[in-house]
Amino acid sequence: MKSPFAPLSFDDVIAGRSGDRCCSITNCWPTARWLLAFVWLTVGCAAMVAADESNEESFDFFEARIRPVLIEHCYECHAADSDELGGSLRLDVKAGWMIGGDSGPAITPGDPAASELMAAIRYESSEMPPSGKLPDHVVRDFEKWIRDGAADPRLMDEEEQLTSSQHQEFDWDQARQFWAFQPPRSSASPVAFDSDSAIDAFVQKRLDAEGLTATPIAPPSVRLRRLAFDLTGLPPDPETLRQFQADPSDTHWRRLVDHYLASPQFAEHWTRHWMDVARYADSNGSDFNATHHDAWRYRDYLVRSFADDMPIDRMIREQIAGDLMPASSDEDRRDKLVATTFLMIGTKMLSERNKTKLRMDVVDEQLDTVGRAFLGMTFGCARCHDHKFDPITTRDYYAMAGIFRSTRTLHGESQQYVSTWKKTPLPISKQHEQSIRKHEQSLQGLDREIKEVESELKILAEKTELEGITIDDVDAVREGHWVESTYKTGFVGKGYVHDENRNKGEASIRFAAVLPNAGRYELRVHYNASGNRASNLPVSVQLNDETHDLILDQTVPPKTGTYSVLKEFDCDAETQALVTLSNRGTDGYVIADAVQWVQIDGKADQGDSAAEIERTIAMRTALTQTLKKLKSQRADLLANAPPPVPTAMALADLPSDEREDCPIHIRGEVSNLGDIVPRGIPQVFSESTTAFEPLEGSGRLELAQWLTDPDHPLTARVSVNRIWMHLMGEGLVRTVDNFGVRGEKPTHPELLDALTIDFVRNGWRQKRLIRNIVCSDAYSRAMVSDDDPRVSLDPENRLRGRAVRRRIPAEATRDAMLVAAGTLDPSGREDLMDSYATLVSQNNANSKAMTKFGLDDPKRTLYLPLIRSEVPPLLANLDAADPDLLVGKRPTTNVPSQALTLIGSPEVRQWAMQTTKRMMNETTDETQRVRWACAVLFSRDPRPLDEEILHAWLDSDVAKAMSSDEERYREWIAAMFASTEFRFLD
To answer: How far is CA 361 from the centre of its chain?
Structure first.
């Protein structure tokens, strides 16, 4: 058998001689050999292996998700200072779980199933922690951590860390000499920086120093595809490609750059980049996946900001303290409030019973996000101890934590013990405000009338409440699955039963009675109404040999009294009455409590004359009609209500008497408090005072102003580096979220500083910086083959002498397929989640509110709901950002499963068929179709191999067995979608 990574020939794959790599696939899908052959050829027979990810991201995950759990639940029995070391196992140091205790090593990195620790916290062996099983999402975090290699930076034990870290004295003068803490330096640029060749001069300087030559400029088709995807996230249209190939001049290039920068697609694409860092999602995730009904407002704020080329420093200030900044109009005030969603949108353990801990967990998430997003620094681990590598002390951490602790993020509970976030009303126009007030007044007036009529009806109901024959559920005959309710009040007898909203068509309950006297009877049914009840409950009434089929709506409460009147019946004496409730075809919970038969035509022993009873019944009938009209008017009023006051996930400062400096939490424990630290900035950034003085509010506005100070050494550098990375594949500092000691140093420090100075000097404008980068030769370089000497001399392309293949983002890959299919809807979308319940997803499948917009929706992926824990597999397989985490740089993998996911996805196959139909409508023969497909999917002219593959496929027995040309071409298009050339930029 061939090696799993040995090259295969075209003939090998076609013949199925691919060893164990392909046999299972080709056996289960007849077209797979041909598709794999095509994918293999477009990959270039290269081994497809996952790229290594930085340990920094893994360490961050450990600090944020694993260490706090170990401290809270494990250190008491499994740390150096434990009174008795449980099972001889320490978990306060990496060596502890590596060596293990009485049962051997506690963790097998990469293999959760073989790890004793996992068995313990799953309660499969010893039950740890003994106080209670950890929440499911925490268990999943440990699984992920171990599966990803169990990265653990704790090389010393906790006692050593406390000695060497928490109580150490930093040499601040020495710490401030680190390159990232020094302001950008102006250097003698080889040419004026305003010229197009400024960037190239800095790059060439490094190449010359290393004795390397740059590659030539890439062909026009390659350059244009690169530019279109980098700036808009969409492919160039074939006509633009044709024109640029005919005239690839610098003037034409600059015109295209300006066209793309001015397009709405640019703002949408670069919004998605920012959303990665903002850990955007339309739900909370974690233990309580609550719906973020208003998150879309923040997304649209970003789109508008990028479209308007809002200065990045202003965007940062608004997202940290927009609510504290002056506003020029209601629209400006709305935008500034919505901007603070940035700090609100992270995942939270909303059902945490210890609300003090929850409050600090939210503060920690906000602080870590601000540090990594804007400073490229990790603050999270300083919650428990001084930073192990960077000059960030625990005092620094709590100085900044006090700022966010003096800010209201959470507000109230959505249900018992489950916290919810603050929802802030947004400004509206005076006309809107007046229409809402008028509507509320009308509604209140109707509600008063309805209440009065219902009160009169209740009195009349009591007067006509004749003694009836009542059959409780305990006396009824049940079939199928019924469950006793745990509800405490509002039922007849001892309780009631319900069908759990499941096993529809299998449950029924029969209430039998004998009606002793001849006369007119009302059939009444008792239940407690609710919105989750069945609105279409079938009720079968059998009176001797007559059967009547009725429908009961249990979402509506009884109009009078406690029973709902279904119908009146004329009955003979000794009538056998059987009432059957069934859950057949019902759309909610079916409630079965009691059935009552009441004779309403009067009896001598009732005390009132028959005439008086008849008059009362007539009055009740008239009032019932009045009530019906009033409720109809109310329904019409609600249907024509003015739009409600919009709300945003916007934070606010706490009242002045609640704002306070934060005490140090020793070892990060909320119950173990130390010195109080004044709110301020880390000491490494100031040689004088670090406290914010004077301080009028929480300190967020002061923090935002400090971050965006033109002289700040990090904020602009981090922004410039991220923009460079999105265009060049790697940042000038490759660890884009870590500019600290453990991060990489810049490959071109002078270039980074020059770009940063120019960026700040020209108003922090992103479009100008992007234009400068994409108009450089460095951006337009060609790729070279792996055997080129330049690759061996600079294998990681740190000197920027050539282009390297780059992954197209997952969202852009999907959008490109919609473009090819001709179905992309370019318009946006607002109320993604407005119709959803509190929870996006619940454990009970029947109440799970799934998203109504799926992958087959024609909108850009930006406008689809992004639900934590439910990212579509197609996007996840293509390395979409994890919305639980801040992702400054997405991982890039290129593994066979990605191509197979694309080939097998029902949505991709649908888009392939739509693309095929479009192609066949616009072409007449194979040659034209190859040219069309290459232009639309690859943005290039066809090559001889393209036509060879298509001819070979169409001549194959598998293709000939298909029923139509559309099917045959669909498989070919699907293979092109799955190819590396479609998913990557050269």
So the answer is: 19
